[in-house]
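cron nightly-structures :: item 1 of 1
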Amino acid sequence: MTDVVQTENQGGASAPDMSGKVADLEARLAAVLKERDTHAERANLAATLQTKHDKLAADFAALTGERDKLTTQVTTLTNEKREGAILDKLSTALPHASRTEVRRMFLGLAVDGKVERYAEDADKTSAAVLEILKTENSALLRAPVGATGGTNPSTVQSPSRDPLASLFLGRRR
């Protein structure tokens, strides 16, 4: 009887030991499958996030270009407004000079670096321009001389006749 017992013990493991090992292997297999599914989900999520990231990066680049364009437009409009305010002040101070002459003179001073073309304070800049014109004894500060030699040229014009009226209404019999 001892021989039979020894053969059973030597011949292999008992049924409860085998079912425990199978259960252990099934648990390990389930864990490995779960981990594989988790890795696949992570890879899928990573690909989705990369796609979204690429789309957002392209949108950001487009918005950056639009922002730069709009910033340039705002700067241009601000500079035009500032320059216009300075030219308005100078035109008021020099009523006998045309706007073109005032602008030409102002741009010349700005190019020479004597005044700032797009200064924020129009009053200070126009005062500086007038001071420069005084020191340079500019002709823009002098009133124009009229035909009679006075400093107020005559603004009275001879009455003009309508050419058609003079042709048809001028002949009376």
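cron nightly-structures :: done
Confidence is low (pLDDT under 50) at residues 1-9.
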